[in-house]
Amino acid sequence: MRLIPSKLKPASGFAYFFHIILICLLPIIVYTLVVLNFVQLALSIVVLSKWRMFAVKPRFWASNIRANAVDLMVGLSIVIFMTHSATWPVKLLWAVLYGVWLLFIKPAGSILMISTQAFLGQLCALMALFLVWAAGPTYGLTLLAGLFCFLAARHFLDSFDEPYARTLAYIWGYFGAALTWLLSHWLLFYRVVAQPTLLLSVVGYGLAILYYLDHSKRLNPGLRRQIVFVMVAIVVVIVAFSDWGNKVV
Q: Which of 62, 76, 150, 232 has the largest count of CB atoms under 10 Å?
């Protein structure tokens, strides 16, 4: 069951204004810490900003962690992106994007925006994973990629009250882990985006569109074939035109 944000956050008045100020302070604090090279402290601040997950009875902790996982994935990933940015204007741009996430994207409750949250969460988490741990052990990449895919899928499916949300999320997580395990033996990069990230984003986005259209009774056989064709064509182009000699084993 999804909690309604308006019942947990002030909707107007001084409390609302103060709440917005606190949200805006988080990207500023994170940016300042990264510029001062206190990266671990910046990561800790992002995690500590979710302290309300544990301000309930322990039996609700697992549900709260899952509900806030996408927000944590985005926040921690942006800190990593800041850290790997060469100049302070780029770091500042990431801080601004983090503010946009916190103020406009994360609080939204429509199906479209929840789908956007799930897509951005998976994309950012996978990009950050391969950015900092491309040379890490295969089992670590596999487990984390599968976990990120599972959490993003669960966030997406919960917005539809899908009775098989857990099962479908496990399937997507397994697919993400399996694809990462396979491609980690020939880990290719397109500038800063690893091939597993790109493929999982394309396939995941295509499947999410199919699911949304089917759920809203707007999916017909012709449209289904078009979406599948475009999705498969993009995957074939990515695989066929990759330089498989340029690899990280």
A: 150
The model's pLDDT over 110-143, given as tens digits with 9 standing for 90+, comes to 999 999 999 999 999 999 999 999 989 999 999 9
Confidence band, pLDDT 50/70/90 cuts, at residue 55:
confident
Half-sphere exposure of 135 (CA within 13 A, CB side): 0
| DSSP per-residue string spanning the chain | -PPPGGGTS--SHHHHHHHHHHHHHHHHHHHHHHHTT-HHHHHHHHHHTTGGGGSS-GGGHHHHHHHHHHHHHHHHHHHHHHHT-SSHHHHHHHHHHHHHIIIIITT--SHHHHHHHHHHHHHHHHHHHHHHHTTS-HHHHHHHHHHHHHHHHHHHHHTTT-TTHHHHHHHHHHHHHHHHHHHGGG--EETTEEHHHHHHHHHHHHHHHHHHHHHTT---HHHHHHHHHHHHHHHHHHHHTS-TTS---
Express each pLDDT in 137-195 by its tens digit: 999 999 999 999 999 999 999 999 899 999 999 999 999 999 999 999 888 998 889 99
Alpha carbon distance 141, 194 (integer Å): 12
